[in-house]
Amino acid sequence: AFLSPTLVFAEMASNSIRVVVGSKNIVKINAARDAFARCFSGREIAAEGCSAPSDVADQPMSDDETLRGATNRARNARQAVPGADFYVGLEGGCENTGDGSMQGFAWMVVLAGDGVRVGKSRTATFMIPPEVAGLVRDGVELGKADDIVFSRHNSKSTNGAVGILTHD
């Protein structure tokens, strides 16, 4: 079933919304909190993270695998922390293109507390620099590859690949 914020909003009696993100990464938790604050203006958003496995490779290498990872994180978060209004899975992925370059993107999956209604969205695609792409092809996770190439430390917990490439 499709997850419509408008319909869910009408069903909710409480002024606060509890969101559980299938990750302990503060960047992902804050992103989910910000997105829910925009969808549910005037409501208090309590967002928390939990360890929820993606059940895919540490660095998903296809659109399908990345979507599965986000879906699994949302479902596993629901199993780990019952009773929330929403569960969020966020997964970043890469994919080789036909011309030898590599693109990056992310999937977001939101499950309503009932575990039935679901919303999905994918980010825009961005091109990964060749030196980073080479490391990823060699089995290095994108965040670690960014750290190596751009002399950063734990960038995936701060501004991530997009932030680095856009000078954020």
- Average residue pLDDT: 90
Order of helices and strands: HEHEHEEEEHHH
Class by alpha and beta content: alpha/beta
Amount of beta strand: 25-35%
Give the end-to-end Cα distance, rounded to a whole number of Å.
36 Å
Helix tally equals 6
Descriptive report:
The protein has 168 residues and is of the alpha/beta class. Helix content is 37%, strand content 25%. The protein is built from 6 helices and 6 strands; from the N terminus they run H-E-H-E-H-E-E-E-E-H-H-H. Strands 1, 2, 3, 4, 5 and 6 form a 6-stranded mixed β-sheet that branches. A hairpin with a 5-residue loop joins strand 3 (86-96) and strand 4. It is elongated, with a radius of gyration of 17 Å. The mean pLDDT is 90.
Quickly describe the structure.
This protein is an alpha/beta fold and 168 residues long. It has helices spanning 5-11, 26-39, 63-80, 130-137, 142-150, 160-165, and strands spanning 16-21, 44-49, 86-96, 102-112, 118-122, 126-128. Helices cover 37% and strands 25% of the residues.
Keywords, please?
six-stranded mixed sheet; 168 residues; alpha/beta; 6 helices
What is the strand and helix layout of this fold?
Blueprint: H1 5-11, E1 16-21, H2 26-39, E2 44-49, H3 63-80, E3 86-96, E4 102-112, E5 118-122, E6 126-128, H4 130-137, H5 142-150, H6 160-165
Parallel strand pairs: 1-2, 1-3
Antiparallel strand pairs: 3-4, 4-5, 4-6
Helix pairs in contact: 4-5
